[in-house]
Amino acid sequence: MSLVERIIVALDVGSREEVEEALTRLPQVRFVKVGMELFYSAGPELIHVLKDRGLKIFLDLKVHDIPNTAAGAMRSLSRAGCDLLNLHCAGGLEMMQRAREAVGEDTKLIGVTQLTSTNQSMLNSELGIPGTVEASVLTYAQLAKKANLAGVVCSPLEVTSIKDVCGKDFLAVTPGVRPRGSATQDQKRTMTPGEAIQAGSDYLVIGRPILASPDPHGAFLKIVEEIEVEV
Fold first, then answer.
1. From CA 198, how far away is CA 156, in angstroms rounded?
2. Which of 31, 178, 192, 208 could join 182 in a cystine, given CB atoms 3.0 to 4.6 angstroms apart?
3. Domains located in the chain, CATH noted
4. In this model, does residue 231 exceed pLDDT 70?
């Protein structure tokens, strides 16, 4: 798998028109993420449009509900033909198992551990989860492994530990990736693209540093080059 295929560009925009504009300026992109804002605005039809363009798709809706409802949601979402779907590991083992059974074999289901906007203080004082962020992430990753999920969404900081515990084939999809010199914005646990790949990340999810650039195509290629230099 080439580096280009390992960079998932987050289409964090609000309309199909903005998607078309972004993709016109990103001719080499092969994998995109569709999140809540875009999916709720453009609907399932957008997934078919993107697939017709030959793109791989990570549908990032972070499903979290009772097992029966989560399974039904995944059954519906998997019909769109996405390559990656996700849910919250916090929903528990049964929810993840039921959801996994409902997803087609061509779609990989991954679990969200802790959001990359979560830091130690927030984890303990706001979410009421004791211990460290890494310990919480590893607990969720092991639960996802037990549920037969393909991998997890995590920060690059936890990838090495997850691979040690869950195996090299257990996917690590990592947001919280920022090229050198970029602002972290609301991300709390970050690495550069090269550092994330070296740590073992299988896919890097990068949005604003590419889409917000005056030259998105140049920004994308610069990230690829940065990885090639660092790895």
1. 10
2. 178
3. 3-230 (3.20.20.70)
4. no
